[in-house]
Write a structure and sequence with these properties.
single chain, mainly alpha, 0% strand
């Protein structure tokens, strides 16, 4: 019964992020492309630094989409705080690795909320029409 909601959440979040990255905020620069003094940018050896398509963070959108879906499906309150912390760590890691600005990570959170909410609405319409 939850498969349509999960599927639509994945499809909508992917569409929102890719549309944002490639059409609305096309080629939005990442920290290493914007900050000229590289001594101010924390980098991690072995991490390939990207230069564009920064906004919004797809990793953070995915992490928060999974977190929100898990909250809806599991309904186990003991998961809410650790799950939220793990999703926040994803956003933090994107900033720590100099792949995104904090605003990019925040936009990923908002994209996840919009995607999961939209998927919930589709799920409700799906089951109201099918009589289930």
């Amino acid at each position: 019964k939850i498969f349509p909601m999960v599927l639509f959440a994945i499809l909508i979040s992917t569409a929102v992020v890719q549309f944002g990255k490639h059409y609305v905020f096309a080629n939005e620069a990442r920290p290493t492309a914007v900050i000229t003094d590289q001594a101010l940018v924390h980098t991690v050896e072995g991490v390939e630094l990207h230069k564009s398509y920064s906004f919004p963070s797809g990793h953070n959108t995915t992490a928060f989409s999974i977190y929100l879906l898990a909250c809806l499906v599991l309904r186990a309150r003991y998961f809410w705080l650790p799950g939220f912390f793990l999703a926040l760590l994803t956003g933090y890691s994107r900033v720590y690795l100099a792949q995104h600005f904090p605003l990019d990570a925040g936009a990923g959170m908002i994209a996840a909320v919009v995607s999961v909410y939209s998927a919930m609405a589709i799920q409700q319409k799906w089951f109201s029409k099918s009589g289930a």
